[in-house]
Each structure stands twice: as structure tokens, then as C-alpha cells.
Amino acid sequence: MSKRIWNVYLSGEIHTDWRDQIIEGCNAIGLPVSFCSPVTDHAASDDCGVNILGAEDNKFWHDHKGAKLNAIRTRTLLGEADIVVVRFGEKYKQWNAAFDAGAASALSIPLIVMHGDDHHHALKEVDAAALAVTETPDEVVQILTYVIKGRL
């Protein structure tokens, strides 16, 4: 029996508990999975650059500093992932999530996308790059169970 621990990167919207649902679902059935994600504290993610490297008068440079620091984490963790799950939420457009989905695809890392019916058209290219398109955290747990354990 393999002792492999699967590394799953959870990218996307930060306004619901979808990550917790996936983690709890996988833990409940004992899947050998380790989860990681971008920084999900919105204020910390936005302001990390200026808090660490100094204030910026221009909002572009404020955001630029933060984006670069966040990219250190994202590139490292996403690049080490066995599977990337990207959730597109209802309320906001997650451009960073689309970017992460594209990076996973470019790196040939298996991609699972999660969103509602109302996003099918807008995300058709992202969906086409994904190996699975889901709507719920439970579907992601079922996919991970099948992929890791080989059972339905």
C-alpha cells in the first residue's frame, strides 16, 4: 500500500467556507491529502507589500508590491501541487483564480474547477482546460476519493 500524501492546492474565492468543506470531507474519510492555498485573509493579501516593504502613494504600486509577495507563495505551492482545485464564486470576479487555473494548466497539473451554472459561458476556456468541472465541495471530495482510493 502506498504511503503517498497527495498535495492539493485550493485556489479561488475567499468569501465562503468551501475550503473547509473539502478539507473536512476528506478528513472524515481518511484521505491521505495535504491542503494548501493562497493567503485567504483579504486585508493581509492586499497590504502585505506595503506593510513589509514600505508605503506607496500610488495604488498601482501598492497592489504591485502585494501581488509580487503573494506570487512567491502561489508559485511555490501551486507548482508543488498534485492537483489544483479552483473555485469561482458568485459575488466577485476572481481574476487571480483564473490566473491560477491557467498556471496549473500550463504546468500540466490536473485541474478541478468549481462554479455554478451561471459561470459556464464566462469560464468556457477554463472549463475546457480542467479535467473536471464541479459545482459543490462534495463533488470535489468524491473526485479526490475516486482518484486517490480508486473507489466510488
Nutshell version of this structure?
With 152 residues, this protein is α/β, with parallel strands linked by helices. It is 50% helix and 15% strand. It has a domain of 105 residues: Rossmann fold, CATH 3.40.50.450.
What labels describe this entry?
alpha/beta; 152 residues; 5 strands; 50% helix; Rossmann fold
List the helices and strands and how they pair.
Elements: E1 6-12, H1 18-28, E2 33-36, H2 42-53, H3 59-80, E3 83-87, H4 95-106, E4 111-114, H5 124-129, E5 132-134, H6 137-149
Parallel strand pairs: 1-2, 1-3, 3-4, 4-5
Helix pairs in contact: 1-6, 2-3
Describe the structure in your own words.
There is one protein chain. By secondary structure, the protein is α/β, with parallel strands linked by helices. The chain has a domain at 6-40 and 80-149: 3-Layer(aba) Sandwich (Rossmann fold), CATH 3.40.50. 50% of the residues lie in helices and 15% in strands. It has six helices and five strands; from the N terminus they run βαβααβαβαβα. Strand 4 (111-114), helix 5 (124-129) and strand 5 (132-134) form a beta-alpha-beta unit. Helix 2 (42-53) crosses helix 3 (59-80).
